[in-house]
Amino acid sequence: MEAKALMEKAARFHGHICPGLAIGVLAAKHVLEHGYHYSPNEELVAVVENDNCSVDALQVILGTTYGKGNLVHQDYGKNNYYFYDRRTQKGIKLAIKNREFGEKKLTRNEKIQLLLNSKPEDIFNIDEIEFNPPELAQIEESVPCEICGEPTMSSRLMTYNNSDMCIPCYKKLRG
Fold it and tell me: What's the rounded Cα separation, in Å, for the pair 91 and 133?
């Protein structure tokens, strides 16, 4: 699929067109062109180190979503993207290069067009990586918090003063 069509698809999901979305489109396009496939379940996993617009493009184009557990966010503030394909046991990392868009100031639209017309290797450092994906998403029992009563994933309960409680209640009691 061409970058323009992918950008249109991503923009419908994201709500607007911006340089960050273009970065995600370019990353997703590269991944699809190199033996990775859309993930209806958890076959493809994306581990991202940012929470910017680019991640929305990965969700809609690659099928890596937070709700399915095949989109993992590590809040490092970096434009690094790791992809693991459980079908082929391959892994790849795309890390945005530290570069400016040339000497002249580019408009927002010029940046978007430059990104969409670029080769991924001009924008990213691209490396094959060891196949070491996160575990499959776990479905856990919900247990009522003994303080607020809200159902809470059992693995997220905290124990304080012999009571099992959700993290917000624990933080409130611990001050």
Answer: 8
Specify the number of domains making up the chain: 2
Length of the chain: 175
Whether 134 is covered by a domain: the verdict is no
pTM for this prediction: 0.84
Residue pLDDT, tens place only, 113-143: 999 999 999 999 999 999 999 988 888 899 9
Q: Which two tokens stand for residue 6?
A: 């992918």
Residue 97, domain member (yes or no): yes
Average pLDDT, the chain: 94
Inter-axis angle of helices 54-62 and 3-14, to 10 degrees? Answer: 110
pLDDT at 30 over 80: yes
Domain of 160, CATH number, reads 3.30.60
Helix axis angle, 3-14 to 108-116, nearest 10°: 130
**Domain annotation covers residue 137:** no
pLDDT of residue 102: 57
Quote the tokens at residue 39: 């993930």
pLDDT for residue 138: 80
